[in-house]
Specification:
about 70% helix; globular; mainly alpha
Length: about 170
């Protein structure tokens, strides 16, 4: 148990540092903004309690909001991703279900499963994040293009990180 806490804390700290120091400075013509810290929510164990997942999602987003000066946007987006994560896991579950101690990974469930899973979680996160950012439907299609492009770009980084992790 202590080893898992230390491991997940280390993963989160590394992802936040990478987000703040590296990925937050990547922007291609205002349409592509990768947010790889969401990998932390993606990698949490399958059997984590729903209330605890929402709690972790809120505070992980809140910490990023403090560093990036975005009041509540990342907290709201990570809570939304944490809320929809169990639904996504149930909808793409393997035929025999999940092992209670399973951690979502490419090595355990395969590339296709991990791609679909991470893409859906990242899409939910980015939908909430970018529409909270503009807080208007006036530029709906411009924001939607930004969501799609940033989701694809973030998913590429998440897949690379998953390959490097194992």
């Amino acid at each position: 148990m202590i080893n898992q806490i230390i491991r997940y804390t280390t993963i989160y700290a590394v992802l936040v540092l990478l987000q703040i120091l590296l990925f937050n400075n990547i922007q291609f013509s205002g349409y592509i903004n990768p947010y790889v810290y969401i990998l932390f929510i993606i990698l949490l164990p399958v059997n984590i309690a729903g209330w605890f997942l929402l709690f972790i999602g809120f505070f992980s987003g809140l910490i990023l909001d403090l560093f990036l000066n975005t009041p509540g946007m990342h907290a709201g987006a990570t809570v939304a991703a944490s809320f929809f994560r169990p639904l996504i896991l149930r909808s793409i579950s393997p035929r025999d279900g999940y092992n209670p101690d399973a951690e979502p990974s490419m090595a355990l469930f395969g590339f296709r499963w991990f791609l679909i899973y991470s893409l859906l979680v990242i899409l939910v996160h980015h939908l909430f994040l970018f529409y909270l950012e503009v807080f208007s439907l006036a530029s709906f299609f411009k924001t939607f293009i930004k969501v799609i492009l940033s989701t694809l770009f973030t998913t590429i980084f998440v897949l690379i990180a998953e390959y490097l992790r194992k």
